Fold this protein.
Amino acid sequence: MSTHPAAEVGATARAPRRRLRTRLGGREGLAGWTIVFILIAVAILAPVLAPHSPEAIDGNRILAAPTATHPFGSDDLGRDVLSRVLYAYRVSLGIAVGSVLLAMAVGLPIGVFAGYVGGWTDLVLMRLIDLLLSFPALLLAISLIAILGPGSLVALLAIAIIYIPIMARVVRSSVLVVRGQAYVRGARARGASHLSIVRGHVLPNAIGPALVQASVLMAFAIVIEAALSFLGLGSQPPTPELGLMLADGNNYLTQAPWVEIFPGLGIAISVLAFNLIGDGLRRSFDPNGITR
């Protein structure tokens, strides 16, 4: 049976799209990436999209209900909640992405070095990593902020320090599996240098779990940063930040629930998006569910 030429052309045109969707994590991952890109666009375009200034105080609209001109209502100082949520994504996403990238920049080399070299080097590095992991994450962050002082950059640094041992252990586990594969042994037999083996064989095949872990950690980073700001240890007033907005509206939950609902939804949507990306990437790197 012959195939119609038009059908062959259509199938050929759809193949790159299917491969791209698979690499992004399938439908789940694509949904997560779409939400994240929208949130990033919202954060970048906040000055254009925000209907009002996020710090403009209006005494006539204190705890005012949502209207057409103020769709998310106003807070206890009469500030527009929608505008503050849009600007808050700049802080939340910046800290989430920045802390994970910093953790990867430090933790990934440690994990690769420990896993590839092995022996006493691996033992000593992993015991130091275990020492950091023994501290509760939020308590460690609070301790660092108590030493360095509150603020967005300090919160970013504190979260990154929490994530460094996690990233190091994930990468090390992947490297331990990859370094024993036949193609790595073959590269050694051909006389390839350790650097070329790590760069050309180990790292490309061990990076998948680290990327999955990074997307999940970004979701947790948003929650941790919001919790720190809620406690007054993260972003400081009058900076628009989701956790800080929750703290400001905590006393008005029954009187003006919109002051709490919309920042809470902002956190929930961000966490959902990064978790969708993580689930999608896990299926992409592990389609048979071996590591489930």
Notes: Residues 81-117 form the longest helix (37 residues). The chain has one domain: 25-53+72-285. The mean pLDDT is 85. The radius of gyration is 23 Å.
